[in-house]
Amino acid sequence: MVVDGGFIEVDRVEKVFEVRRRTGFLRRERRQVRAVDAISFRVARGEMVGYIGPNGAGKSTTIKMLTGILTPSGGRLRVAGIDPSRERARLARRIGVVFGQRTTLWWDLPLIDSYRLTHRMYRIPDARYRANLERCVELLELGGLLDVPVRQLSLGQRMRGDIAAALLHDPEVLYLDEPTIGLDVVSKAKVRGFLRDLNAERGTTVLLTTHDLQDIEQLCSRVMVIDHGRLVYDGPLAGLHEAGESERTLVVDLERELPPIELPSARVVRVEGPRQWLAFPAGESAAVLVARIAAEYPLVDLSVREPDIEAVIGRMYAEKAVS
Amino acid sequence: MAELSGHTAGGRLREGLRAYRLIAGMWIRSTMAYRASFVMTTFGNLVATALDFVAILLMFSHVDALGGYTLPEIAFLYGLSNTAFGLADLAIGSMDRLGRRVRDGTLDILLVRPAPVLAQVAADRFALRRLGRVTQGALLLGWALTRLDVDWTPLKLLLMPVMVVSGCGIFCAVFVAGAAFQFWAQDASEVQNAFTYGGTTLLQYPPTVFGKELVRGVTFVLPLAFVNWLPALYVLGRPYPLDLPRWTAFAPPLVAVGCCALAGAAWRVGLRSYRSTGS
Q1: May I ask which residue range the UniProt record assigns to the signal sequence (chain A) (predicted)?
Q2: Residues A226 and A269 in one domain
Q3: Pairing between strand A299-305 and A247-254?
């Protein structure tokens, strides 16, 4: 067994599509599009990684290459030591995939039927199947739903059903493509809670793409940002703030209207009566700042606002687009 | 390595058949969720195919022979064609939905399962209602056999099941090749229907009613003539079209194997292309 530096190994992988565009009745223009451009990363066993980027950035293409659906145009790709495009079926037994927008469940049949099919198709030993199903049913609250035809399930119920379906064969890695898309707050919380437990208790490696940054904030210690087919950030979520040069905001309520607070480490961005908004670098401590203001000004109340990560990432994309 | 069973050709075939059985079973259960609808569509299917033959009966109310063939002889050709095609249609007739799966991206779901994609696509939307056509074809064939004046020899008897199985194989190859083509042209299912449904309609009539060029086309290009024409004309003791040699009546199994091999190759090329372009 190789020491786990990389359970998922991606080395300068690229994917080039040839796009044909109709320019006339029969004339076509061919253009090459680099959907994924020499991306490299490694994911260790048991990591939980968020993979984000704007639409068309190459997220889905990367996932499709990792699951063996698409063959890379170049580079080297290994998942659990398997070359996904060459041994698609062998890899399939070791991975779980959840497509947020497309269900793998059988529309007209009771939920349990889909699981029975998985049981047989993946040749899951009976005892293991029963244990896994029981666990998923309990944690994903599917108890009353097993006999309900899938078409009658709500979106949130179906998503939980889909996640269970992807886990019955004990996959070592779980790919989730937009797992919380369209879900209400309660369903999102359930899905996130389950994924966190799955990762903590079973050590399942999780790679998820999402547009919902709360998914990342609540689940992933590591985030990868892809834009225009290139990896523009790979690291902890906190670091994203620095990379995006983001600022936190301190909202200060004073006793009365005063001129803007003057401090070297912060600048006032807005004044409204006795309330003032101060921006300061996200990497710096708020405590120092608060202490100074409390010492020098008649402070009534205050609150700290974390930077909007969406704005941070938005800025990151914008910078890339300019450069 | 316990999972090597999928690596040899025989292992892959076994895996494929197993996946096919599992998925077809799921579709049957799905259809049974709407039992009344199933009964009606099956009945409708049977009636529609039956009415199809009524058109021929009507023709015979005005003439005694069509292209030199009597009614039982036409029924013989018709029954053979519909039985062979009906079996293929029942088994893998929904493969023309592949284009839609490529378009809406649901093919990807099949690609992350540990089973051959061809088997999964073949079993897609498996519909028992298609038994209607097989039933009609078999009944008509049975009726024709009671009316025909044939000197049965062991060879002719042997040729009957061989003909149906080979014909089914040839049509299956057309379905697979048509589906493979949809990896490139996603709305080509109508083109495919022209060859499958159109082909079987063609074979319901004797070759003598068609132009030589057409007969040549379905003999040498898309070898549908081997489904029923050549072997059936041997059974009936009729002259072959295009002055083909006698032995061609026994070629259907070889033609079927050849067609399936070609269709399989086309499928592999198509799937590889999909996986490299993801179109």
Answers
A1: none
A2: no
A3: antiparallel
